[in-house]
Amino acid sequence: MNLLEDCDFPEPGTSVDLAVSGGPDSLGLLVLALDRGLRVTVHHVDHHVRLTSTEDAQFVVEVAERFAVPCVVHDVFFTGVEGNFEARARAARRRVLPAGALTGHTMDDLAETVLLNVMRGGGLEGLSPMVGDATKPLRNVRRRDLHYLVADSGLEPRYDETNDSSAHRRNRVRHELLPIMNDVAERDVVPLLARQARVLFRSEEHTSELQSLRHL
């Protein structure tokens, strides 16, 4: 399977920044970006929250050295416990990562985000996340296929135990809600949610174009 066919990378030779955590998704992003012939700079954000975070950072540095690409480690320190940790961590990453940095979000992440936004009462924009987002070049790639690619590349990703914690709503969507939906639908609903997101995105684009024409 050629996963590059499902990716939305820029042209070969383009310089890009990659957000690489050391997990399988971001490692897959790195492998595919290099296969595409992009000029890569790796960026790793160390939140200094987990006991193994420094080891994660060192792992990413070593992977970058293996592929002979530059690597920048960004240190982020949290104070206090107020607010949603996932949201705070995401905001912290955005503050330190270069604008336009590519991330390893997959079709599965897209589907999870759609469901999360439904529960938050998100509008049409919330129901079509990542579609058209140039920083999410793997949004049409399945997570499992990406993990197979990483395994075939001989890389052993770092394990983030927080991805299994039911304290985080996304994890419950991933490990509980989606399997129930698959069971009820008797099929894999991730591609359906992703297709619906694309349809809504194109519909919004078309509506915006019509509104622009009316104002000419």
Description:
Strand 1, helix 1 (24-35) and strand 2 form a beta-alpha-beta unit. The chain has 7 helices and 3 strands; from the N terminus they run E-H-E-H-E-H-H-H-H-H. 48% of the residues lie in helices and 8% in strands.
Shape: globular
SS field, number of helical segments: 7
Global mean pLDDT: 92
Q: How large a portion of the residues is in β-strands, by DSSP E?
A: 5-15%
Share of residues in helices = 40-55%
Please outline the major beta sheet: 3 strands, parallel
Task: Note the topology.
Layout: E1 15-19, H1 24-35, E2 39-46, H2 53-66, E3 71-75, H3 85-96, H4 107-120, H5 143-152, H6 169-185, H7 190-214
Parallel strand pairs: 1-2, 2-3
Helix pairs in contact: 1-5, 4-6, 4-7
Summarize the structure.
This protein has 216 residues and is mostly helical. It is built from 7 helices and 3 strands, in the order βαβαβααααα.
What keywords describe this structure?
216 residues, mainly alpha, 8% strand, globular
